[in-house]
């Protein structure tokens, strides 16, 4: 939940400056991602949505204070509950599991598997889920929570701060204490008591998210996974003209489904080569412990509470009369430090595509997973193309660690106050976690320009040397 990390671990920040500048320059040149400014800003392309809830972060709503202890010094920060507005309706409450990264103002978040976040490689992720289920706001009887923890009394602010501090000790393995004594006692109790639990079920996903085949075939199955009682099934927008239907295995046209339902695309035999998309939507409470990640480099969150919220998922079908018929999807894989590209080919000819200078071929009737290695905090922008106008673009940012390339350098929006130093005071109403852009952008830009100038000078010297040698 730490919004602004300027002034904290300055030595670490200075050490990372050259690396951050180099990465920024490479991305701008298209060497790493080809994404350009649009992707770096979180716009353009289609992020790898796994389905579920999509929400916009509003900032901290209930919080106290904590102190982080590290070699570079102590830092007082706000610690507590964030609030998010769900697209389509609903509200989420979350805690931060990404202490050293900033929260970007109005960042868009998507429900994400643990494997696509730092939680995937964290052996203590299950303990964080236990804390969420056994503390505020899931336990909203503060008197009962105080008795359980062996503390005097707890305010909502104390409960939120103590819960966040306990989570940070497992999510970031940070040395952090709550400022309020009651909140600190709660944090200690939760840390001692936490037990490992498994990752919660997604609120709504479709598996696989892409299928392919020939006209006249039934393509699928696409299986619904949800904690909702029922989900609404929407056919492709052009179903009336294309003739594509969404059916079950018996051929019944489907307008609703449940967890475990298998859906199929029924493609007319005379359909021209093309694609179609089905959508499913439901209203449900998102399970506590689900991760939420943003492609705008805004810190990863974990769900602490949910109102009845709108969740959705989509799946795509591709068909062709002959040749390669690809079905392509992607998912972040933090364990391997990259992006997994899943490619299946239902055609009668190989499907060949290129990624980062390497050519990959999927034989007819086969499927492959290609992992594209990425650097931490690296923006990526890949477009996979094929015959018949097939094109699928994947954009995003790999954020698998709680301390990324820009960790100590990211400052808050210029309109926001700075975090109070240890022993200082915090202005009433100050939101220490609400951030916008980075105040180091001009510095990075200046240094990047410096590298360009230096590079140009080197080229001039080399040319002069070549002329002299000639």
Please render the helix and strand layout as text.
Elements: H1 10-29, H2 36-40, E1 54-70, E2 73-86, E3 91-96, E4 108-112, H3 125-133, H4 142-149, H5 156-171, E5 176-178, H6 181-193, E6 204-207, E7 210-213, E8 218-226, E9 231-234, H7 239-242, E10 245-247, E11 256-257, E12 262-266, E13 274-284, E14 291-293, E15 301-306, E16 309-319, E17 326-333, E18 338-345, E19 351-355, E20 358-362, E21 367-373, E22 379-385, E23 391-397, H8 441-469
Parallel strand pairs: 7-16
Antiparallel strand pairs: 1-2, 1-4, 1-5, 2-3, 3-15, 4-14, 6-8, 8-12, 9-11, 9-13, 10-12, 13-16, 14-15, 17-18, 18-21, 19-20, 22-23
Backbone CA Rg: 25 Å
Spatial sequence of strands, sheet with the most strands: 1-2-3-15-14-4
Helix-and-strand structural type: alpha+beta
Strand content: 25-35%
Shape: elongated
Portion in helices: 10-25%
Q: Quote the distance from N terminus to C terminus.
A: 61 Å
Number of helices: 8
Overall pLDDT: 79
Give the total of beta strands. Answer: 23
- Largest β sheet strand count, sense and barrel closure: 6 strands, antiparallel, barrel
Low-confidence stretches: 1-47, 404-470
Structural overview:
With 470 residues, this protein is of the alpha+beta class. Helices cover 22% and strands 33% of the residues. The chain contains eight helices and 23 strands. It has helices at residues 10-29, 36-40, 125-133, 142-149, 156-171, 181-193, 239-242, 441-469, and strands spanning 54-70, 73-86, 91-96, 108-112, 176-178, 204-207, 210-213, 218-226, 231-234, 245-247, 256-257, 262-266, 274-284, 291-293, 301-306, 309-319, 326-333, 338-345, 351-355, 358-362, 367-373, 379-385, 391-397. A six-stranded antiparallel beta barrel has the order 1-2-3-15-14-4. Strands 7-16-13-9-11 form a five-stranded mixed beta sheet, with no helix packed on it. It has a four-stranded antiparallel beta sheet with strand order 6-8-12-10, with no helix packed on it. The longest helix has 29 residues, at 441-469. The radius of gyration is 25 Å and the shape is elongated.
